[in-house]
Amino acid sequence: MSNQSQQCVIAKFGGTSVADYQAMSNSANIVLNNPNVKVVVLSASAGITNLLVALAEGREPEVRKQHIAKIQNIQYNILEQLPENPHLREEIDHAINSIASLSEAASLATSPALTDELVSYGELMSSRLFVEVLKQKNKQAIWFDVRKVMRTDNKFGKAVPKIEEIKQLCCAHLKSLNTQHIIVTQGFIGSESSGKTTTLGRGGSDYTAALLGEALNATQIDIWTDVAGIFTTDPRIASNAKRIDEITFAEAAEMATFGAKVLHPATLVPAVRSNIPVFVGSSKAPDEGGTIVYSANSIKSELPLFRAVALRRKQTLLTLHSLNMLHAQGFLANVFAILAKHNISVDLVTTSEVSIALTIDTTGTSTDGCSLLTKELLDELTSLCNVEVQEDLALVAIIGNNLTTIKGMAKKVFDPLEQFSIRLSCYGASTHNICFLVKSNDADSIVNLLHQSLFE
Ligand code: ADP
Ligand code: ASP
Ligand code: MG
């Protein structure tokens, strides 16, 4: 790895790619087939993070027992396909015992730090098992605790990586490791300066792979998942979605930001910064190929006007209305100051003379959007204006290039949606997207109709 002229690929496998023994075995074959893979970054086996998050919220003893049994079952089923290794079984049992005691603690008093410590066991266990799957295939691998290098701040649950420290720590702890051995490590988890475990937010393993890729001067970051690339929309929603063979960083980042779950929204930030191509493919069907994401000047085909449709569920709409706004100055500034004080990140905004409508993204929170809107925040806003809160909304985004130059945009985009009501729309701020809010129940039909009219 220290030789930079060598190819260095970081391969990340998501939850379904390490869900059971067969999935791990497919993923291990991908690693074996590419001698350039130097570091493997893993998610927890599918389902485990959700169970751990539920345990971290505090559960009754009986429910705790059931959840822990499910976790144990998923990991034991993998263990049983591996050569007998009492030491490994002990390690998994030790992790399960820690999960049990931390879950008990969480049922008494939960905290974001405790949650992160608890959920980290998902990635810690899957990575440990994967080392053995590789060894079973005669490939020597080193298990590496990513918390040694993945330094973050202490915003538990959504920690922010410290890029320079990560680079230095990777130099000190990772680059010197034996280059003959593959390094197997965890996605999603990190540690703050005093050593406590943090996490990068749900789906954060993609981001880990990109951060390590940047720190190690990787030549490519491979994201192996359950779909053979990035599609024109979520193939689970629209069966006619088509694979995009190559896409620019900017387009893919826009898709990820607007809900294309195939990439965590922050994944492309390090990749763009360091100009590292990102490949997305299916670990079940590696021969089907995938999507390559790189800079606009590497793209061979012409950039299309419409690239994709993305969908983000769980959106909350706040409508603020005040007659005092009429010809007044500073009203918007006051509203945004209150939101900032309460750490609310505003997503879309539209304004008229006496009203402001804004959306808050609550994906990634386990509860509904209302929990972000505390009584204190709503009281403060109400002292300034009328406040209306609406939930059960979804954000649909059309991603493309030079979208503000289209003639007849309204007809193209809104004609197919004539039987639906559109609650809010944003067009013009960015040339890369047009987005609007719709009722959650209408979202899938709308994505299908838009996909049909723009891509089929
Ligand atoms: P992993 O566990 O491997 O990280 P994720 O579930 O996070 O996998 O991401 C893969 C999923 O992303 C797919 O199963 C698919 O349903 C969803 N997805 C959403 N939008 C897209 C898109 N435009 N192209 C491909 N997949 C998408
Ligand atoms: N295991 C974590 C999650 O489910 C991180 C990831 O899979 O990327 O959110
Ligand atoms: Mg993911």
TrEMBL record:
All copies of the ACT domain together span 320-401
A Pfam entry, by short name:
AA_kinase
User: Sorted alphabetically, which keywords does the UniProt record give?
Assistant: Amino-acid biosynthesis, ATP-binding, Kinase, Nucleotide-binding, Transferase
Q: Which GO terms describe its molecular function?
A: aspartate kinase activity
Q: What is its EC number?
A: 2.7.2.4
Under InterPro entries, the record lists: AceGlu_kinase-like_sf (IPR036393), ACT-like_dom_sf (IPR045865), ACT_Aspartokinase (IPR054352), ACT_dom (IPR002912), Asp/Glu/Uridylate_kinase (IPR001048), Asp_kin_monofn (IPR005260), Asp_kinase (IPR001341), AsparK_Bifunc_asparK/hSer_DH (IPR042199)
The protein's annotated catalytic reaction(s) are: L-aspartate + ATP = 4-phospho-L-aspartate + ADP
Identify the pathway.
Answer: Amino-acid biosynthesis; L-threonine biosynthesis; L-threonine from L-aspartate: step 1/5; Amino-acid biosynthesis; L-lysine biosynthesis via DAP pathway; (S)-tetrahydrodipicolinate from L-aspartate: step 1/4; Amino-acid biosynthesis; L-methionine biosynthesis via de novo pathway; L-homoserine from L-aspartate: step 1/3
**Database matches in PANTHER family:** ASPARTATE KINASE, ASPARTOKINASE
Q: Which family does it belong to?
A: Belongs to the aspartokinase family.
Query: Which named protein is this?
Result: Aspartokinase
* Protein's organism: Frischella japonica
